[in-house]
């Protein structure tokens, strides 16, 4: 009788030990799952506030409003004042800061402003670059870096093509925006970098695609093609296709 009780007691003890180990294992597993869920929830970005448009804006500066002199990249006075009025932001700068704020609320923080110069298809008179009566004009290829670093004025460059002209105008806007960064206190705007690009006469406005040849005969279309675009982007990560 005593042997049977002792045997029964051993079985109960083993059962209790196994059950305790199982409950400890389940408890630890539950704790790990809970911690993972807390981590995932913490990493999940909150939805944007109601009424916030998350599609990034493209700021368009058309020639009808901001007209460069023919073949020139010198900023029109009204474009300069709409970027910076003394030490205060102009309406272009205010729109940039507003868009940066909207993108931040949409969890799409902007790191770089892409300034793109667009022209019409009217050929550039590049012969002026070799004009002995105006020796101050310098070919873009030899002096672009000096202008970008602030060691040379933009009005000393001579465009040999619409691609040159578009880049010069974009760079001229970039230099004014960099000046505004140093003179204003717009917190988001002060963090961004700038890139200057030229699209020459290649693209029609408002995402209409590639331009067709010989569209210069339409004055209305030609005017709309001359513009500066400001796009909001991220720097991204450089990757190279796998050699395999």
UniProtKB/TrEMBL annotation:
Protein name in UniProt: OmpA-like domain-containing protein
Native organism taxonomy: Bacteria, Bacillati, Cyanobacteriota, Cyanophyceae, Nostocales
Keyword Membrane recorded: yes
Keywords for the protein's UniProt record, in alphabetical order: Membrane, Transmembrane, Transmembrane helix
Listed transmembrane segments: 21-42
